[in-house]
């Protein structure tokens, strides 16, 4: 399974996290701010160690010593091009190009970010270039994991691998330890130095999935996405996507030192386990007393359980989760982590493989119980799914209806008006763009397919469509259909309905 493969690849170590591919960062101190003559440095052999020096007050000051050969023989630039569908006008495509960084590791493979090669279809083209070379070598995506923003590339060319130095994967560094981030800015390799400053769980922008990462006190340059983070000659992370306010971070996974096997069937989607809970902390003494917690007890209160969760039907609303696999959960929903650090309890579950179990200790109506929960991923976010298929859409009366990013329980998803193709039929409704659809003829809309069925089954009646902010849209079915035939021709749209909506629902 891809998840096992990629977890084997970067866990116990981690991924670094800057929003490096589309956020401009100020120049940062790099390897002691000294790589004054990069070409001279790159002449050092693979096994050599070079001492980087910096002139300070007229004197040369010795800085950290580390293997500069990593730069020359391990790091590559990744080029990606594809045609992707527009999210607001799904019948249209546009060319997407981007570049990032990657590095060689065992098995003649390249590790990079999933967001660098995110759209995989018949139009996708991926190439890599070695430092100092003008040749771009054709590559293919062997495995991809959007959830954790990782991808593995294969390059068949034997010429490419001549002289390449695969990097060894390492473990989690302690706090205040110095690490180096390697990457490209333009055609130059840059080095950024920072100290490990904190551990945290945050959502990845690429997949909207919350996973653990470790932050360092530095920002990095545009183009570093996919670059290795080095500590004591080993890769402990991969630069990945975060928000503009964030600095470089890391994400650990389990079984980092295990080999990545090639004989397993590849999945297009990586999956990470989750209990699928909506919960709240219980730091207030009054709520703890209400649920009959003793003074020694700590935990979290379950508000809701996802239908796709392995805990559904076993755990219940208003259960207090006291511990997971014997690890007590604090009232602020954290568990012990590295040294004196604490981290969200979700970390314990995300480190498990699908099919593994966790022992969950709960307090229910004043009595303690233990349940063995079979772990599995909840249904993937639509943001992850969107990388594999043409977006769903439905055009009615010139209004383009599409699903919003988030997919919720009970097959529910928000539907919005992404575009209004102007015509007499929708005159006066121009301000309704981007509003969410709530009801059709007083029936709550569950998802895009349901909206399509509610409208198409209406026949010739007038339709009343309730939108957010109490806005109301009224259209005559017959008039809207006649207008659509003209609108489609005007905009060169082949169909008012995406193919997935014309197929029977599962």
Could you characterize what this model shows?
- The two termini are 25 Å apart.
- The protein has four domains: 2-50 and 57-71 and 166-250, Trypsin-like serine proteases (Thrombin, subunit H, Beta Barrel); 75-161, Thrombin, subunit H, CATH 2.40.10.10; 277-374, Roll (Pdz3 Domain); 392-502, N-terminal domain of MutM-like DNA repair proteins (Alpha-Beta Barrel), CATH 3.20.190.
- The strands form six sheets. Strands 9-14-13-10-11-12-15 form a seven-stranded mixed beta sheet. Strands 24, 25, 26, 27, 28, 29 and 30 form a seven-stranded antiparallel beta sheet that branches. Strands 3-4-5-8-7-6 form a six-stranded antiparallel β-barrel.
- It has helices at 2-9, 38-42, 69-74, 158-161, 285-290, 346-350, 382-385, 448-456, 477-490, 499-502; strands at residues 50-56, 59-66, 75-85, 93-105, 109-112, 125-129, 137-145, 150-154, 168-169, 178-185, 188-203, 210-216, 228-231, 234-238, 249-250, 277-281, 300-305, 320-324, 327-328, 334-336, 342-344, 357-364, 367-374, 394-396, 399-407, 413-420, 436-440, 443-444, 462-467, 472-476.
- With 506 residues, it is mainly beta.
- InterPro entries: DEGP_PDZ (IPR041517), DEGP_PDZ_sf (IPR046449), PDZ_sf (IPR036034), Peptidase_S1_PA (IPR009003), Peptidase_S1_PA_chymotrypsin (IPR043504), Peptidase_S1C (IPR001940).
- One of its GO terms (molecular function) is serine-type endopeptidase activity.
- This is Protease Do-like PDZ domain-containing protein.
- Keywords: Hydrolase, Protease, Serine protease.
> Widest sheet: strand order?
9-14-13-10-11-12-15
Helix content: 10-25%
Number of structurally distinct domains: 4
Major sheet attributes: 7 strands, mixed
Distance between the termini: 25 Å
Decide which structural class fits the backbone: mainly beta
Count of β-strands? 30
Mean pLDDT: 76
How much of the sequence lies in strands comes to: 35-45%
| CATH fold-level name of the largest domain | Thrombin, subunit H
Number of helices: 10
Question: From the coordinates shown, what is the CATH architecture of the largest domain?
Answer: Beta Barrel
Return the CATH class of the largest domain: Mainly Beta
Which regions have little confidence, pLDDT < 50, spanning 5+ residues? 1-65, 252-268, 381-385
Globular, elongated, flat, extended or rod-shaped: what is the shape? flat
- CATH superfamily descriptor of the largest domain: Trypsin-like serine proteases
């Amino acid at each position: 399974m891809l998840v096992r493969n990629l977890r084997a690849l970067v866990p116990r170590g981690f991924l670094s996290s800057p929003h490096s591919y589309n956020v401009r960062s100020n120049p940062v101190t790099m390897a002691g701010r000294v790589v004054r003559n990069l070409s001279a440095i790159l002449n050092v052999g693979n096994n050599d160690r070079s001492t980087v020096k910096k002139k300070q007050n007229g004197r040369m000051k010795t800085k950290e010593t580390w293997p500069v050969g990593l730069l020359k023989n391990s790091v590559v630039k990744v080029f990606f091009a594809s045609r992707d569908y527009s999210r607001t006008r799904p019948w249209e495509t546009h060319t997407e190009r981007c570049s990032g960084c990657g590095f060689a590791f065992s098995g003649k493979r390249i590790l990079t970010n999933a967001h660098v090669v995110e759209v995989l279809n018949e139009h996708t083209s991926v190439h890599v270039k070695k430092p100092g070379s003008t040749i771009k070598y054709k590559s293919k995506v062997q495995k991809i994991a959007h959830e954790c923003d990782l991808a593995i590339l294969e390059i068949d060319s034997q010429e490419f691998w001549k002289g390449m130095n695969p990097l060894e994967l390492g473990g989690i560094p302690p706090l205040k330890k110095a690490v180096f981030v390697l990457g490209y800015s333009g055609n130059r390799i840059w080095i950024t130095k920072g100290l490990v400053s904190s551990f945290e769980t945050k959502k990845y922008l690429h997949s909207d999935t919350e996973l653990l990462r470790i932050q360092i006190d530095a920002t990095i340059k545009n183009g570093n996405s996919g670059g290795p983070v080095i500590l004591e000659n080993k890769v402990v992370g991969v630069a990945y996507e975060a928000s503009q306010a964030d600095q470089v971070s890391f994400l650990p996974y389990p079984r980092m030192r295990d080999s990545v096997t090639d004989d397993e069937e590849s999945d297009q989607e990586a999956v990470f386990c989750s209990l699928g809970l909506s919960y709240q902390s219980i730091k207030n003494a009054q709520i703890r007393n209400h649920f009959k917690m003793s003074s020694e007890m700590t935990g979290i209160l379950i508000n809701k359980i996802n239908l796709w969760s392995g805990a559904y039907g076993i755990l219940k609303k208003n259960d207090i989760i006291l511990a997971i696999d014997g690890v007590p959960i604090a009232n602020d929903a954290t568990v012990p982590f590295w040294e004196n650090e604490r981290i969200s309890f979700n970390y314990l579950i995300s480190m498990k493989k699908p099919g593994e179990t966790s022992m969950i200790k709960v307090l229910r109506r004043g009595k303690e119980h233990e349940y063995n929960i079979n772990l599995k991923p909840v249904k993937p976010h639509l943001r992850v799914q969107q990388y594999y298929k043409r977006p769903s859409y439905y055009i009615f009366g010139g209004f383009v209806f599409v699903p919003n990013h988030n997919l919720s329980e009970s097959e529910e998803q928000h539907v919005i008006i992404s575009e209004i193709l102007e015509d007499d039929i929708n005159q006066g409704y121009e301000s309704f763009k981007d509003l969410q659809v709530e009801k059709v003829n007083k029936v709550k809309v569950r998802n895009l397919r349901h909206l399509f069925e509610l409208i198409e089954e209406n026949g010739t009646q007038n339709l009343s469509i309730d939108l957010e902010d109490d806005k109301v849209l009224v259209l005559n079915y017959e008039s809207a259909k006649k207008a659509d035939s003209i609108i489609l021709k005007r905009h060169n749209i082949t169909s008012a309905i995406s193919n997935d909506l014309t197929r029977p629902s599962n």
